[in-house]
């Protein structure tokens, strides 16, 4: 295969990247150091709405179909329930589903196998990377492979690759361990609820998290002491403390520690880093895979534009600017959660106790659930003072449209709104705008794919967005709003389009 992009790592981020690149017509070679897929354990289970949307575009919509869409999150302190909350319904896809990473990878493998532009090679451990002005040479033992670009999705242990690129991976590892178990049991009333317990009598001083999964299975996470080595007897006792005398089957268990780390660069020349090899966060809030898959999407469309000659000189560098900022936000949010879960100072312990004993929902932090990162400050985004970003909405609530924010989804006859965005840029025009004029002018700017639609053509869209009759909305291929332009004219829209293509001098 004459690959245009080599993807290193066949986990769900690498699989997603390969599928998204192939969707753009790019030939992809996927390399993995393992001999085969290791299909055991639930691992990453919570998949957020916008990630389900990406997978649907990649041909893996079965993930949303098969996942369990839980509705209610309950939080307990010792023996009493503090509060509960529910996701607000927004768009045709569920807010999140629970599904084991094993099944997710199986579905993605099926989609990869059906894609002739993707080749997967196991037993290919990357031992070196070198690059020049025209491409990247990947060394796998004695074998040398070459492609114009490389996307590394090789997980947290990709130290050799990071070192070859001169990338550091600074951060910390938390002392406390977590025991995770997958069990199969009949737990009436728990099938659609996530339960988080602070300091229960059966795990004093620590936390327990319980998630429902498809097929009558449940995932349980216990925070345990740093030096505790759980035996089968310990595991059975812990499970019984939660479910009582009901029969159950232990399907899988493991222990792990949380890490908080960030790569110094996510783009080095022709090599991009994505997923756990670029950032590690504590799993509360499900911000690991739910950040890695958007990395893959961001990288895929920008690499496709570069390979097809549609990109400006700053487009690839914007990958680092956008996704590094997203990783920093996730680190900040999960670090705050960990300070609440495992307080290290007297002040932190007092704040936690006051919040829990007072049942203060706004102060109790069990992990803010994953959200898309909004590229408000991206070099590709055109700011609009009349449409300022309003900041993070309340937990579980949608965000109002603004430049940089992801476009809200909605049902359309025969599909969804975001499906219109996946083949290139989308320009939505108010009824006072002359679409023929915009098509003529923008066609002279670039050959990049661009669809032009009238806001009035899509029933209810202008009202949903709050769009005016003289406005133009430029939407990126990843559904993020690149610009909202009042009193839109060809010149202002052209400027926004050039900016969104990265037609700025690159800085690295």
TrEMBL record:
A molecular function GO annotation: monooxygenase activity
Organism ancestry: Bacteria, Bacillati, Actinomycetota, Actinomycetes, Streptosporangiales
Assigned keywords, A-Z: FAD, Flavoprotein, Monooxygenase, Oxidoreductase
Necessary cofactors: FAD
Top-level taxon: Bacteria
Gene3D superfamilies assigned: 3.30.70.2450, 3.40.30.120, FAD/NAD(P)-binding domain (3.50.50.60)
Organism (species): Nonomuraea helvata
Chain ranges of the FAD-binding domain: 3-330
UniProt-recorded name of the protein: FAD-dependent monooxygenase
Pfam short name (any one): FAD_binding_3
Keyword Flavoprotein found: yes
PANTHER family: BINDING MONOOXYGENASE, PUTATIVE (JCVI)-RELATED, TRK SYSTEM POTASSIUM UPTAKE PROTEIN
């Amino acid at each position: 295969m004459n690959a245009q992009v080599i993807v290193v790592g066949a986990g769900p981020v690498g699989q997603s990247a390969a599928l998204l690149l192939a969707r753009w017509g790019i030939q992809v070679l996927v390399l993995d150091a393992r001999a085969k897929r290791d299909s055991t354990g639930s691992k990453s289970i919570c998949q957020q709405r916008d990630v389900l949307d990406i997978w649907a575009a990649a041909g893996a919509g079965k993930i949303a179909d098969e996942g369990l869409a839980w509705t209610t999150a309950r939080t307990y302190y010792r023996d009493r329930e503090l509060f509960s909350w529910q996701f607000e319904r927004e768009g045709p896809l569920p807010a999140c589903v629970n599904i084991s990473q094993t099944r997710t990878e199986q579905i993605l493998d099926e989609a990869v196998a059906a894609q002739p532009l993707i080749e997967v090679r196991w037993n290919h451990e990357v031992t070196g990377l070198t690059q020049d002005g025209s491409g990247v040479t990947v060394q796998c033992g004695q074998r040398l492979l070459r492609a114009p670009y490389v996307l590394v999705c090789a997980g947290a242990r990709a130290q050799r690759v990071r070192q070859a690129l001169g990338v550091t991976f600074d951060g910390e590892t938390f002392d406390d361990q977590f025991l995770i178990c997958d069990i199969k049991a009949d737990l009436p009333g728990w099938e659609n609820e996530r339960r988080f317990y602070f300091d229960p009598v059966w795990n004093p001083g620590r936390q327990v998290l319980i998630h429902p999964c498809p097929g009558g299975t449940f995932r349980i996470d216990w925070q345990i002491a740093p030096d505790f080595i759980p035996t089968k007897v310990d595991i059975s006792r812990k499970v019984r403390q939660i479910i009582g005398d009901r029969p159950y089957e232990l399907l899988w268990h493991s222990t792990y520690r949380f890490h908080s780390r960030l790569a110094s660069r996510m783009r080095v020349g022709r090599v991009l880093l994505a997923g756990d090899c670029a950032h590690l966060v504590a799993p509360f809030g499900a911000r690991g895979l739910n950040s890695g898959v958007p990395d893959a999407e961001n990288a895929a469309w920008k690499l496709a534009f570069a390979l097809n000659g549609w990109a400006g000189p700053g487009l690839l560098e914007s990958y680092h600017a956008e996704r590094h900022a997203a990783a920093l936000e996730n680190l900040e949010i999960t670090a705050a959660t960990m300070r609440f879960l495992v307080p290290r100072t007297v002040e932190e312990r007092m704040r936690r106790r006051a919040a829990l004993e007072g049942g203060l929902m706004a102060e109790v932090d069990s992990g803010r659930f994953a959200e898309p990162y909004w590229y408000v400050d991206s070099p590709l985004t055109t700011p609009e003072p009349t449409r300022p970003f309003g900041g993070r909405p309340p937990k579980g609530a949608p965000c109002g449209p603004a430049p940089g924010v992801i476009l809200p989804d909605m049902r359309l006859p025969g599909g969804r709104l975001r499906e219109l965005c996946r083949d290139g840029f989308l320009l939505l025009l108010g009824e006072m705008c002359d679409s023929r004029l915009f098509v003529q002018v923008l066609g002279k700017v670039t050959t990049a794919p661009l669809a032009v639609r009238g806001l009035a053509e899509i029933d209810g869209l202008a009202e949903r967005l709050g769009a005016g009759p003289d406005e133009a909305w430029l939407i990126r291929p990843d559904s993020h709003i690149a610009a909202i332009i009042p009193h839109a004219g060809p010149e202002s829209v052209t400027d926004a389009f050039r900016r969104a293509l990265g037609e700025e001098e690159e800085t690295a």
